[in-house]
Amino acid sequence: MSTVTLRVNGVEVTKDITPRTHLADFVREDLNLTGTHLGCEHGVCGACTLIVNGRPVRSCLSFAVACAGADVRTVEDFDDDPVMALLREAFSRHHGLQCGYCTPGMLATAYDIVTRLPDADEARIREELSGNLCRCTGYVGIVAAIQDVLAQGSHRSAVPVTAPAPLTAIATGWTPPPATLVAPAPVGQIAVSGKIDGGGTLTRSIAVPVPLERLWNTLQDIETIAGCLPGASIESIKPDGSIEGAFQVAIGPMRARFSGTAHIAFNATARSGDVRGAGGDRVSRSRAEGVIRFTAQPEAGNASRLTLDMTYKLAGPLTQFGRPAVVAGVVDQLLATFAKNLVQASKGEAIATSVPVGGIRLLLGLFRRLCSRVRS
Ligand code: FES
Ligand code: FES
């Protein structure tokens, strides 16, 4: 591993990464900035283009360690940028995107053209864009959008938020490590850090119609709680209190089984605690990490309420399922069953065998969620 420090979207970040980690994987997987897309990973398609020290760079060909000290801007950093605002509007007006896969890279290159070549004609725009491939929209709308922004002339007064740095080699400050092969850690043995940078967050609370003391006693029974959670299973509880186990989830045709380790800490005075867990899915080679902070409080009528604050992060091929709407759909469905089981367990009743959440029921839930968002 090598420690690298660079500035990403105005924030200095320091991470321990393998020297072969390219910049695209670094921003997507370590910083959760998934607006940067990967197409060919061979420097051909330009989908991964982002801005390094003011210049468009193919992030699939740039080692993150080689960008030590550099200023990196991904598409997420351009929300308030006046030049990018003009380009976004023009892309939309001229139908410069369809599926949008190439668009973050196209916008990075378009931004460079507009700020560096204010007098570029169509031929020059096409030449400059030749390193960015679009597989569905074609180039007519994209070129027209850039021409439109250049013709408006307003980009000349719209000063870029970060002025491009002169074209110089990036100082790496990186010394290659000795050439020894380090075997990757088995996915089941990923360290539980409890600190998740750039992860998603979610808060939910469940009304539990049982007294606080009874709920608290149930919460401390780890095996019962695992039995309440659909898809969760415990393999062993170690002498140090850490738990080896697995969690299975399915979204439509996608199935994943994350095996890993969790630690639980209780605060009896505050009736709260936290669960920190990390694990990997061997089939997809994806990793998941999460922290759940829980608090139980009394409610009127001899009932109680369980509040859960969750921070989570997915890395690897399943990262796309870490989008907030998808995670919220999975969590809400899990919690619906968990709450029912928790009440039964707190009352001393047997709970039904828990099955992994997923399949058609989950897809329908997500569909309903999207429909209600469209209606509102
Ligand atoms: S993904 Fe980088 S050039 Fe295609
Ligand atoms: S908009 Fe689909 S690849 Fe360009």
Unreliable stretches covering 5 or more consecutive residues: 161-194, 359-364
- Number of separate helices: 9
Query: What's the architecture of the largest domain in CATH terms?
Result: 2-Layer Sandwich
Please estimate the helix content: 25-40%
Q: What is the CATH level 1 assignment of the largest domain?
A: Alpha Beta
**CATH level 4 superfamily of the largest domain:** START domain
Fraction of residues in β-strands: 25-35%
In whole angstroms, how far apart are the ends?
48 Å
Characterize the largest beta sheet: strand count, sense, and whether it forms a barrel. Answer: 7 strands, antiparallel
Overall 3D form: elongated
| Overall domain count | 3
Overall strand count: 12
> H/E element string?
EEHEEEHHHHEHHEEEEEEHH
CATH topology of the largest domain: Alpha-D-Glucose-1,6-Bisphosphate, Chain A, domain 4
Q: What molecules are bound to this protein?
A: FE2/S2 (inorganic) cluster
Kindly name the structural category.
alpha+beta
Radius of gyration: 25 Å
Q: Order of strands across the widest beta sheet?
A: 6-12-11-10-9-8-7
Mean pLDDT: 80
